[in-house]
Amino acid sequence: MILPLDIPSPCFVVDYHALERNLAIFDKVQQESGTKCLLALKGFAMFATFPLLKKTLHGVCASSINEAILGCEEFGREVHTFSPAYDEDSLKQCLEISDHIIFNSFSQFERFKKLREQFANKVEFGLRINPEHSEGEVALYDPCTAFSRLGIVRAEFEDKNLAGISGLHFHTLCEQDSYALERTLDAVEDKFGKFIAQMKWINFGGGHHITRDDYDVAHLCKLIKRFKDKYNVEVYLEPGEAVALNAGVLVTTVLDIIHNSMFIAILDTSATAHMPDVLEMPYRPEIKNAGQPGEKAYTYRLGGNSCLAGDVIADYSFDKPLKIGDKLQLLDMAHYSMVKTTTFNGVKLPAIALYRDKKVEIIKTFGYEDFKNRLS
Ligand SMILES: Cc1ncc(COP(=O)(O)O)c(C=O)c1O
Known about the structure:
The protein contains eleven helices and 16 strands. The protein has helices spanning 16-33, 50-53, 65-75, 88-97, 106-111, 113-118, 178-196, 217-231, 271-274, 277-280, 368-372; strands spanning 11-15, 36-40, 59-62, 78-82, 100-103, 124-128, 167-169, 201-203, 234-237, 248-259, 263-267, 298-303, 312-318, 327-330, 351-356, 359-364. The strands form two sheets. Strands 1, 10, 11, 12, 13, 14, 15 and 16 form an eight-stranded mixed sheet that branches. An eight-stranded parallel barrel has the order 2-3-4-5-6-7-8-9.
């Protein structure tokens, strides 16, 4: 992507052609394995791209009534909704617009029996299971960690009536390969095999890094086909990150350069407000034309424009000294960034743009009203 110099800053720029490239891989997976892939809106929800995404993906996975409405309004295909717990009002609304509703506990499944029965002809119901098999290295992203509130453990299934349930759902992976999925499927089958055979569908959740260069797509297809054949079920995948992997940048501008034992550049973006995963996970985003600290001639710590002391992106080196006004591109910023922005400290929200056929279309800019509207 060659971006114009006058692009607004900060700005998320999503690359239409990179999305097409990722979708071609999903298309292949769907064709070869017979699975249906959904977009997890929690990871990527830039609805200006939905006309493209919905040509390949079968629908969306929503985690709240707001995401379900967005999926229904803007995507218009299947809506699969899961929430750790529903309140009655939002469940009623979700039932109106969802194809699948997934419950996180028998308690919720039983509590809303009457409501479920009213929608039984229109909505399919599922339960999220917890296979108690951890593949994740980061506890924050591991739904199978000890005392996890996500998913029903096998012991809770004893003596339960599964009438009205047509599917099971699990989500255990995070940026993982098909071999992690294979080990997870072994755990799922080992614990829940006898229930799977009674189901119409099973949802393998997200966390499949399908569009990463070294992902073994053929192995994934083999796993899915084997599962479908063995249990005679439909298989769904609901990735977020893989749909938008390497499909966008965050453009930011150097506002100041200071010195405190090292050079520190202050940017017009913020780790905490615009890319909180950098601090939570934590991880170090790549920057176009930058290296590890010390690798190139000029090293800087890049800091955000909020008052949080730890609002630091990381240390990077550059071939030339940075100057005030320089624009930098943080790479792979389409997923889990735009969906997570806040207006903490009143830091300006990044604009949203789409790059297509060498042109940049500015889709949305934000201002004072967007900050104010959330506060009273
Ligand atoms: C239930 C569920 N489904 C799907 C996803 C999407 O995962 P990813 O974006 O890693 O593919 C998540 C992510 O947290 C999730 O919790």
